[in-house]
Amino acid sequence: MNDRIKDAIKQLEAEIQGRQTDDGCFHFCFENSLMTDANMILLLQTFSKEKELTIQLCERLSSLQNEEGYWKLYEDDEGNLSATIEAVFALLYAGYYSNGDLAIRKAKAFIRKHGGLNRAHSMTKITLAIHGQYPWPSLLHLPVHIILLPASSPVSFYDFSSYARVHMAPVLLLSDQPFVLKNKQIPDMSDCFFREEEDLLPEASRSLLTSVQSEVKTLTGLPHRLYLLSRQRLLTYMLQRIESDGTLYSYFSSTFYMIYALVSCGYQKHDPLIKKAIQGLMQHACLTERGVHIQNSPSDIWDTALISHALQAHPASGIPLHKSEQFLLKHQQTKFGDWMVAVNHTEPGGWGFSKSNTIHPDVDDSTAALRTLRKDPSLQSHYTRGLKWVLAMQNDDGGWPAFEKGKTNSLMKFVPIDGAESASIDPSTADLTGRTLEFLGENAHFPLTDPRIQKALNWLRSHQEGDGSWYGRWGVTYIYGTWAAITGMRAVGVSKDDRSIRRGVQFLENIQNDDGGWGESCKSDQEKIYIPLGESTLPQTSWALEALMAVQERRTPVIEKGISCVLRKLEEKDWTYEYPTGAGLPGNFYIYYHSYNYIWPLLVLKKYLSLSP
Fold first, then answer.
1. Arithmetic mean of pLDDT over the chain
2. Quick one: which of 418, 295, 210 has its CA closest to 37?
3. How does 34-46 read in b/e, with b if 16+ C-beta sit within 10 Å?
4. By C-alpha distance, which of 95, 74, 70, 98 is closest to 84?
5. For residue 202, is the peptide bond before it cis, meaning its omega torsion is within 30 degrees of 0?
6. What DSSP string runs through 53-105?
7. Which tens digits make up the pLDDT trace of 129-186?
8. In whole angstroms, what is the distance from residue 34 CA to residue 121 CA?
């Protein structure tokens, strides 16, 4: 077994080394839901004469259609309505298909059978509304004046999570007028729209909107001037957050809305801002097995940090990592971002997800980058800045969020947009809290007695599920959260006999597959309960094994079976190799990190070699 493991490690490291670029970055594709591909087609058709990329995107998009006519987000998905609508609309807009083609007829039959455009996700409806295919008033009821409300209001613009704010700014501008693009090429989707009485908003959403309207009435000033000031503030908010590559916060989705919002504010279609934004989004293209794909946000920093850490782990690879370290140091952030609203006593020092990201750091990327820095006096200032920033992001409840401290206003969950519960706020999560603890214990050597560690442990214990698992927000899902929690608790010195850890271990052992591995469906985050995939995946098997190895001192039968599964999966590379194990929005956005089939198996195989027989 040991020889097979050593051979597998060598093979993984050789393949990884071949993916390093000249600037030191380890480049892998961040493959997400097809929304970005479909929307890129819309942008190119509307604002550009570029044809080659459009054809490539159409070819990949059409190849992903199921024989039943629908598109899906993951293998065990029975068809996703929004994804199907987006694909149909884009393929028709590009002229790749016409309404009479069998592929479109089958897709539209699926759309109508599942409720039509009326039942699509809010983000899909917004795209349709921009193009005149769905009525704006049904979508959004927040006034643009929300940008003027002070922090003392029950709800303010800065109560949104940073991810939500950067999308809400352009969407509020678009829905306010409302904006509709005029273009003869736009396909007519009215045969998939059902006239029906508009559903009443839930009472909580109505109360929220009433509260916002009441707060708006308290603003002093001439009504029209306040209205114009609100629109200008939203526009300025966007313009101040455009990165050097022209994108808004380095995200495809926010940049997509920004482009149309600029047009709604009077910018011409060929304005340099719009042209640069589209050029920036074109740089998000990556090559997959099925063709060209547009990443929502390239994972340069995340992949480089995690891979460097895996290569450094004992036994070290021998691959020189100086260039990777310099790449990460170059992209440590020095600008103040929105995070400073809640934490104004801390200097910048975090890292973002993409190398074009200079003002939107996050806790996970920051701890990942800090793990890789050599214990070298010349790097101490970088390390200290980064560590201080991470510590400053700890929420008052003891856990860690993804992007900003204190974005936990529960009223934001009732904003009448699908997914508001997940996207509108940025609360503490088990995966962020666990992974931060793992860094603080393993790398920063914080003691168990540190008050910040104790607060985080109390948060984790209070958020353990009844079956012993933890819910993971940014990965799929209960395996991810449980792995992060257990490894984090153990790294700061919590006993393996601790009740929470024993319950977490029991959960993982109970869900081990017959083949020795672990596999969880993307459906888990929608149902808020563990749902088995039925097959094992490499990342999830590796996460479960790493959690068990953090507790066990020896090679147990459970671990032995799991390692055998990892070795077999590395050789087979069946459909589970491409199964999404990253999560963005429940039921709407999942990620197949191409790097994950290298990072996590490499770490867990190395860890196994250090265990006693």
1. 95
2. 295
3. bbbbbbbbbbbbb
4. 70
5. no
6. HHHHHHHHHHHT--TTS---SSTT----HHHHHHHHHHHHHTTSS-TTSHHHH
7. 999 999 986 545 789 999 999 988 888 999 999 999 999 999 999 999 899 999 999 9
8. 14
Under DSSP, the state recorded for 241 is T
Catalytic machinery residues: 364
Cis peptide before 315 (omega within 30 of 0): yes
Q: Which residues contact 447 (CB under 8 A, 6 or more apart)?
A: 453, 492, 493
**Interstrand relation of 291-294 and 582-585 (parallel, antiparallel or unpaired):** unpaired
Label residue 184 exposed, middle or buried (CB < 10 Å: 0-12, 13-18, 19+): exposed
pLDDT, tens only, 73-89 = 999 999 999 999 999 99
Q: How far apart are CA 415 and CA 154, in angstroms?
A: 13
| Cα–Cα distance measured from residue 14 to residue 319, given in angstroms and rounded to the nearest whole number | 9
Written as six digits, the tokens of 563 are 């390692």
Q: Which residues pair with 154 in a beta bridge?
A: none
Percent of the chain with pLDDT over 90: 86
Angstrom CA distances, 226 to 33, 242, 274, 468, 500, stand at 39, 25, 27, 52, 53
Q: What is the pLDDT of residue 234?
A: 98
92: tokens are 């028709």
CB 90 within 8 A of CB 41: yes
- How far, in Å, CA of 357 to CA of 491, rounded? 30
Condensed to tens digits (0 to 9), the pLDDT of residues 245-255 reads 999 999 999 99
Pairing state between β 582-585 and 589-593:
antiparallel
Phi, psi of 423 (to 5 degrees): -95, -30
Which region among 71-75, 97-101, 170-174, 220-224 has the lowest average model confidence (pLDDT)? 220-224
Eight-class DSSP state of 244: T
Lowest mean pLDDT among 17-21, 80-84, 197-201, 444-448: 197-201
Instruction: Indicate if the pLDDT at residue 333 is higher than 60.
Output: yes
The answer to whether residue 281 scores a pLDDT higher than 60 is yes
Sequence-distant (6+) residues with CB within 8 A of 255 are: 246, 247, 248, 249, 277, 280, 281
Q: Which two tokens stand for residue 17?
A: 């080394």
Confidence of residue 198 (pLDDT cuts 50, 70, 90): low
Q: Where are the alpha helices (DSSP H) in 78-222?
A: 81-93, 102-113, 122-130, 162-176, 203-217
Q: How far apart are CA 42 and CA 94, in angstroms?
A: 8
Report residue 311 as tokens.
């290569």
The full DSSP string for 508-574 is: HHHT--TTS---B-TTHHHHTS--B-SS--HHHHHHHHHHHHHH-SB--HHHHHHHHHHHHHHHH--
Coil, strand or helix at 475: strand
> Residue 612 forms beta bridges with which residues?
554
The CA distance from 595 to 539, in Å, is 10
Tell whether the model's pLDDT for residue 273 goes beyond 70: yes
Torsion region of 16: left, alpha or beta (phi above 0 gives left; psi -120 to 50 gives alpha) = alpha
Q: What is the pTM of this model?
A: 0.96
